[in-house]
Write a structure and sequence with these properties.
Largest sheet: 5 strands, mixed, barrel
Shape: elongated
Distance between the termini: 16 Å
Mean pLDDT: 86
Helix content: 25-40%
Radius of gyration: 28 Å
Oligomer: single chain
Number of strands: 11
Length: 257
């Protein structure tokens, strides 16, 4: 029963005669693959719309920090804040790449005026000079007014947090990989209860730091690539189903049997 062809369809010198089990598998799997491809296209469109909204937001004039925090969606809002850097907190994240070069992302701690919580600040990226360099030469964090964009974590990475190993070099703390929860936990151990977001400093052509912030972690092009993969798998499934069930007609075999 299971091996008996459901039907016969003559195609030139071949006959297409699929049996029940392969046909059921094909019918069940093909819509799943197509739906996954369409879903990735929908995700790509969502990311395009999000990118457009964030680009528009990034071009708006900065607002005072307290006003930005009070917004319904403060993420990525440009801010300006008066205050002072916390001099004894410098965190260095190793193994960060920019344009194919290896380097570090440097974090400081900012104390806003008015008694607000201190805020972790990404000062930007510095290149690694050579293989033997442990920590880079870090310009002093000296400013009384900070301009940048708010960034809220999109979720903690439990694997990274559980494997975080800090190393100290002359008062600078170095970590190989991180998430923002790991940074917050570190500054908490140093005696500072930081805010649940960070500030990414505004790009400055006069600064030694490179500040190129991705608007979204996963760009639309990535989802389009995933969609192509799912559609390619669906196409391969169709071709495989046809090839495996397309048989050459033998001279002594009738296609009407």
């Amino acid at each position: 029963m299971w091996q008996k062809p459901l039907f016969h369809l003559s195609i030139g010198r071949r006959v297409f005669k699929p049996s029940l089990i392969p046909t059921l598998g094909f019918i069940l799997l093909l819509p799943v693959l197509l739906r996954l491809g369409v879903w990735q296209l929908d995700r790509a469109e969502e990311k395009r719309q999000l990118n457009s909204a964030l680009e528009l937001k990034s071009k708006q004039a900065p607002v005072p920090l307290d006003e930005a925090i009070a917004l319904k969606t403060p993420d990525m809002t440009r801010i300006i804040s008066d205050g002072t850097p916390v001099s004894d907190v410098t965190l260095v994240i190793d193994n960060q790449t920019r344009d194919g070069r290896l380097g570090y992302e440097i974090y400081g701690l900012w104390q806003p005026s008015g008694g607000q919580q201190p805020i972790l600040v990404s000062r930007g990226w510095l290149p690694r000079k050579d293989f033997y360099e442990k920590v880079p030469e870090i310009p002093a964090f000296e400013t009384q007014q900070l301009e940048g964009s708010l960034y809220f974590s999109k979720g903690a990475n439990a694997v990274v947090a559980s494997n975080a190993v800090w190393q100290e070099y002359d008062g600078v703390w170095l970590l190989g990989q991180f998430d923002f929860q790991t940074l917050a936990e570190k500054v908490e151990k140093m005696g500072y209860d930081s805010a649940p977001f960070i500030i990414r400093m505004q790009p400055d052509t006069q600064s030694k730091f490179v500040r190129q912030w991705a608007l979204v972690a996963s760009p639309p092009e990535k989802h389009i690539a995933y969609a192509i993969q799912w559609f390619a798998m669906a196409f391969a499934l169709v071709m495989l189903f046809i090839i495996l069930n397309l048989k050459r007609v033998k001279h002594n075999e009738s296609t009407n049997s």
